[in-house]
Amino acid sequence: MKLNIGCGNDKRAGYVNIDVRSEVNPDMIIDVEKELLSRFQDNSCDEIICIDFIEHLSFNRVEDFLKDCHRILKRGGKLIVQVPDIELHCKNILEGKYNWKELSYWIYGAQNHEYNYHKSGFTRSELVKLLTKLGFKVIKIERVNTNTYCEAIKEK
Question: Under CATH, what is the fold of the domain 2-84+119-154?
Fold first, then answer.
């Protein structure tokens, strides 16, 4: 089983596409911030994709969510995370490259519906530390455009 969490309109073949919003017609409607991944059994998943998703979780729930990802992944299973590159955005802010609206967009989200607000931010080093602490091995982390893209596997 493969999960695409917070899929929005990016539904992928071969994945269970999950979103909180019914209007995007996901395979499963789950408010992950509230119930995490409680519907899934331990060691039941081969891959989890979280593209442009975890920054929408409260910083009080991110670690719980990633722990739950670890719980449901099989050993050797892959977690793919993409988040805004907060280091790049902070640099651009300090260098005056953003007007107030661009600054607000990158830090606080598009705010075009009730779930599209940023509640968490990550640097590459902090994301690696967090995933490592939770039992993942980061195998790739890089800047892609204005985002941080990370692949990690469940080691134990």
Answer: Rossmann fold (3.40.50)
